[in-house]
Design brief:
Blueprint: H1 8-24, H2 35-54, H3 59-85, H4 93-118, H5 127-130, E1 146-154, E2 157-162, E3 168-170
Antiparallel strand pairs: 1-2, 2-3
Helix pairs in contact: 1-2, 1-4, 2-3, 3-4
Length: 176
């Protein structure tokens, strides 16, 4: 389908993974086989599934692997919140970065599904989406995959509707 290394979403995932590895070096030794390992595995899984999806032959396969990557990104988000609650992590920027990654994955997955349903070229193969400095393609810009307007609220959580998708992504303010 395309070179995953050219995707902004993969670059964000890879950078976050490297920083997660650096950050978890300072975790206590008694967490080495617990939270440290889970954080690292969830982070690695995101970039790996983006790469594997790009290596598949159909947009449906790509969308499926992006869904798996999105699940891992949400797992990472929870583990980061847990790390903050356990006073193992002080830097809340990791939560913001993981939330941004979730929104980017949500938008790219929606584009892959639209391409599959309309028999258009894959969003990965489309050079406008694959470059590091994204340019708009219709209503989707990979660098800003979700609309910032807030949708319905449920309790204290507000949700953001991803462009071109029926999925709802958690709004970054919910995690602050």
């Amino acid at each position: 389908m395309g070179d995953f290394r050219r995707l902004e979403v993969w670059r964000v995932a890879h950078g976050l993974t490297c920083d997660i590895y650096r950050m978890t070096r300072d975790f206590p030794k008694d967490e080495q086989f617990g939270l440290t390992t889970q954080l690292r595995r969830a982070a690695v899984s995101i970039g790996a599934n983006i790469a594997e999806g790009c290596g598949r032959n159909t947009d449906g396969d790509l969308a499926r692997y992006l869904a798996i990557a999105l699940g891992s990104a949400n797992e990472l988000l929870y583990l980061l919140l847990l790390s903050i609650d356990l006073d193992l992590l002080k830097d809340r920027s990791f939560v913001d970065r993981a939330n941004r990654l979730c929104r980017m994955l949500c938008g790219l997955q929606a584009a892959a599904r639209r391409a599959r349903n309309t028999k258009r070229r894959s969003p990965i193969a489309n050079s406008q989406l694959a470059i590091a400095n994204p340019m708009p393609l219709g209503s989707l810009t990979l660098g800003a995959a979700c609309e910032s307007r807030t949708g319905e609220s449920s309790g204290t959580a507000s949700w953001t509707k991803c462009r071109g998708s029926s999925r709802r992504c958690p709004d970054a303010s919910w995690f602050a």
